[in-house]
Amino acid sequence: MDLDPIVAPSIYCLDAAGARRRSRATGTSSPTPRPPDVYPVSDSRVTVVIPAKDEEGLIGEIVDAVKPYADEVLVVDGHSKDRTRAIALEHGARVIQDNGRGKGEALRLSFDAATTGIVVFIDADGSHDPADIPKLVAPIQAGRADLVIGSRGKGGSDELHGSLSQFIRYVGSQLIMLSINYRWNVRLTDSQNGFRAIRRDVGRRLGLTSNLTTIEQEMLMKALKQGFRVDEVASHEYERRWGTSKVVVWKLWFPYVWSFLRNLF
Question: Which of 101, 97, 95, 70 is closest to 197 using CA atoms?
Answer without folding.
Answer: 70
